[in-house]
Every structure is written in C-alpha cells, then in structure tokens.
Amino acid sequence: MQQVNMDDHTVSFGAALRHHRRQQGLSLRQLAGLVAYSPGWLSKIENGMSTPTMQLARLCDRELAAEGVLAALAGSAADDPPPRLRPAQLPPSTAGFVGRERELEDLDALLAHSTETGLPLTVAIDGPAGVGKSALMIRWAGQVSGSFPGGVLYRDLRGSSPDAEPVRPTDVLADFLIALRVCPPAVPADLEQRAAMFRSLLAGLRMLVVLDNAADSRQVTPLLPGTAGCAAVVTSRRRLTGIAVRAGASKIPLGPMSPAESVALLCAVVGPDRVLAEADAARKLARHCAHLPLALRIAAERLATRPHRSLALLAEELDDEKGRLDLLADADDPHLALRAAFFGSYRDLDPEAARAFRLLGLHPDGRLEASVAAGLIGRPLGHTRRLLESLASVHLLEETGPDRYRLATLLRAYAAERAGDEEARVGADDPGPTAR
Ligand SMILES: Nc1ncnc2c1ncn2[C@@H]1O[C@H](COP(=O)(O)OP(=O)(O)OP(=O)(O)O)[C@@H](O)[C@H]1O
Ligand SMILES: [Mg+2]
C-alpha cells in the first residue's frame, strides 16, 4: 500500500478532502460510513496529521465525485515525494522599477477587501502596448506573494506577442496541474476536466495566479481559481469585459506615467546625476516618449550605453515625429522596439478596423471627433463609431469624452507609417502586411 509523506502535501490532501466532503454536504461520520474508515482517522487526515493511503484516496475520490484530484494528490506524492508543494513561478521584478504608487495602493486595497470579505479576488490590468502593465503586476505580485502560502503560479499567455500565437488555456492548465504535483499521466485530456481539477486543487489553498499578456477573456476564464483565499491578477491590452461581467473582475486601467515618474525612470536607468544635470532636456525627452514606459526605457538604455551623449541631443533628435520610431528601437533586441509592440496589436485587427487605424494616422494632431473620423475613414457616422470603439477596446485609440478620441503621438506615427506602407504595397501588388 502506497503512503504519502508527512509534508505540505499531506496538509494539501487534507484540505482538499475536507473541501470535497463539505461540497457534498457530508459529515465526517457519513463519509467514514461510505469508505469504511473511522471518523477519527479521517479527521486526522483532514487536519494533515495522518497520511492517506492510495486506496483511501481512490475511495474518497469515488464517493465525493472529486474527479481524480485526491488520487492524483496522493499518487504524485507516493511516486516522487516533493520536498515542498509551493510553486513560486513569478519572474523577477523589473530592475529600476519606479512610481505607480497609486495603482500599487489600489491593488493592495482590493486584496485587503477580498481578505476581509472572504470573496475570491480577480483583477484585470489593461492599457496600451508598453505602458507597464506587466511590470506593475509582477512588482505587486512579488510584494504580496508572502500572503499566499499556497504559492504563486505565473504564465505569459502571449496574447500580444508580435511573433507568437496566444498560448492555449488547456496547455496552461496542464502545466499548472503539474506544478501542483499532479503526475502527468493523471492530467485529464480535455479543457473542462483540467479546469475542474485545477479549481478543486486550489480549493482550501491560498494561491496567487498571475496571468500576463492575455489575448482576451476567453483565454483567461478557465484559468481563474474562483475560490475564497485565492487571487488572480491578469494583464491585457484588451479591456477584459468578459471576465469583469462573468467573474466580477475588478479593473485597473493603466495609462502613461506622470512627467515626474518618467524622469524618475530615466534617473533609474541613466543615473540621477546625468539626468538631473539636464532636467529640462529630460522632461522634453519624456514628452517625446509620450511618457510611455517602453519608449522611455529604450531612450534611457540608449543614453546609458552612450555615456558622452547629452540628453539634450537625444531630445532634439526626437523632435522629428517621423524619425521617432527609428530612434526608439533597439538594434540588439527587435522585441524591445515600439514598432514590434504596436504591431502585436495592429496584427489582430480585422481589415476594416486596420484600415480605419491607418487613415486616422493621417490626422494632423490625433485629437478627433467621431464626425471628423467619419470623414477621414469615408464611412457613415454610426459605422465609424463602432470602428472607433473597437480600436479603443484594444487601446489603439483613447476615448477622451463623448464622441471624442485621441490617437497618441507614437501610435499616430506608427499608423501613418502603416498607411504609407499599405499604399506602397497596393501600388507594388505586394501579397500582404509584414511586421516591422
Ligand atoms: N514602473 C516602471 N518602472 C521602470 N520601468 C518600467 C516600469 N513600467 C514599465 N517599465 C519598463 O517599460 C517596458 C514596458 O513595460 P511592460 O512590458 O510592463 O509593458 P506592458 O504594458 O506589459 O506591454 P505589453 O502591452 O507589450 O505587454 C519594460 O522594459 C519595463 O521594464
Ligand atoms: Mg505585458
């Protein structure tokens, strides 16, 4: 008969057993009658003080309709007893992270509220490409990970990578189950069963699930724990209305940095002496980067690797809107470039929305009323509104008031570039758009 080691695993097994027994509305005595064990022994197992046998795990699985979770927990421990059962998958926080105090406080307050009320927490951070959603989430998750003794699960869902497809939720679930010590052969085949086993394993644990760069609500929904004590935090370029409606997710919209935060970011990468010695140039540089962390970071790295280059010179070079996207690119790492980041959003637009985006890029300052946009796009007002809304829902356009929109400077430069490309492509009879 296989025995489970006395460790975290025994405690998890006990918590899972208690959860399933209560879910079925059974007392310890009733379950004891069904599996022919004594209530006292079952109570010790539930409290993590005794180790279950595999036979008992299977019996309980059957009687409690636990979908193999209990046997998987017992089986994985017996095959390969883990030293501990606490995934800690979070990547390191951004070096030189600055600012975002208000958002960090908002996240803390949401967590405190969920702890007080005993309700599960789901938070979605959404905003434009490169605005710092992932950096903020990873920073916060690192700060609060100690409050989650069950551990932290993390996955980059690749929802907006310029050169990769979004990860399938069923694959993420398989990895999460294995991280939770389910032995690979016990991972069920289909998505629904994997999701059910995942939720069952998390029941009774305090676990933080961190889902980065989600494509949409559909990708995320099966990965949400949904039980009290657990929390999920998600980033996406898309407004995740689906999980807000279905899972009651709280939303933290993230916008560009303040001018002060932008200068602090430059200080963190370039060094305060150099930046503060040219404070006016630093502010101008930050404006040219539209206070967008990704742009600021690229500009800062450029300066850091050129110690004799003045901030004023780079700010001057960035004066030319057309050349900005060339300057805000990293020759070593094509992913660290604004074009690559913007392409990840542009690529997923349907052809009409993509066309609208390109044409809006031709507007001289990017501040548009819907009626002006309708003129530029050459479509009726109602139809134009829907197109503008679809661009705003993926943060390629900002809604600034009723029927009013703004296309941020760097995005406008990108849209104008794509418009030029498209004309050249049509002229040359090229087969289709490419990443740049
Ligand atoms: N608060 C911050 N302090 C310092 N650097 C930051 C901060 N926020 C973001 N950055 C830097 O800016 C860049 C973009 O940030 P991040 O990847 O978090 O953006 P994102 O919004 O998740 O982008 P995407 O939409 O492409 O996923 C990264 O290099 C990151 O390190
Ligand atoms: Mg991100």
Sketch the major β-sheet: 5 strands, parallel
Number of helices: 22
**Whole-angstrom Rg:** 26 Å
List the uncertain runs.
1-5, 80-84, 430-436
Q: Give the CATH topology of the largest domain.
A: Rossmann fold
Order of helices and strands: HHHHHHEHEHHEHEHEHHHHHHHHEHHEEH
Helix content: 40-55%
Q: SS-based structural class?
A: alpha/beta
**Shape verdict:** elongated
What number of domains?
4
Strand residue percentage: 5-15%
Summary of the model, kept short:
This protein has helices at residues 8-23, 28-35, 39-46, 54-64, 69-79, 101-117, 133-144, 169-179, 191-202, 217-220, 241-246, 259-270, 272-277, 279-288, 293-304, 311-317, 324-327, 338-346, 351-360, 370-377, 381-393, 409-428; strands at 121-126, 151-156, 207-214, 231-236, 250-253, 367-369, 398-401, 404-406.
Task: List the keywords.
22 helices; 5-stranded parallel sheet; 434 Repressor (Amino-terminal Domain); Rossmann fold; 4 domains; 3-stranded antiparallel sheet; binds adenosine-5'-triphosphate; alpha/beta; elongated; 436 residues; binds magnesium ion; 9% strand; disordered N terminus
Descriptive notes:
The longest helix has 20 residues, at 409-428. By secondary structure, this protein is α/β, with parallel strands linked by helices. Helix 12 (259-270) runs parallel beside helix 15 (293-304) and helix 14 runs parallel beside helix 16 (311-317). The N and C termini lie far apart (61 Å). It has helices spanning 8-23, 28-35, 39-46, 54-64, 69-79, 101-117, 133-144, 169-179, 191-202, 217-220, 241-246, 259-270, 272-277, 279-288, 293-304, 311-317, 324-327, 338-346, 351-360, 370-377, 381-393, 409-428; strands at 121-126, 151-156, 207-214, 231-236, 250-253, 367-369, 398-401, 404-406. Helix 10 links the parallel strand 3 and strand 4 (231-236). The chain has four domains: 8-79, lambda repressor-like DNA-binding domains (434 Repressor (Amino-terminal Domain), Orthogonal Bundle); 101-253, Rossmann fold; 259-338, no CATH class; 349-424, Winged helix-like DNA-binding domain superfamily/Winged helix DNA-binding domain (Arc Repressor Mutant, subunit A), CATH 1.10.10.10. The strands form two sheets. A five-stranded parallel β-sheet has the order 2-3-4-1-5, sandwiched between helices. Strands 6-8-7 form a three-stranded antiparallel β-sheet. The protein is 52% helix and 9% strand. The structure holds adenosine-5'-triphosphate (ATP) and magnesium ion. Adenosine-5'-triphosphate (ATP) is lined by residues 94, 96-100, 127, 129-135, 160, 213, 235, 237, 265, 293-294, 297, 341. One of its GO terms (molecular function) is ADP binding. Residues 17-57 form the HTH cro/C1-type domain.
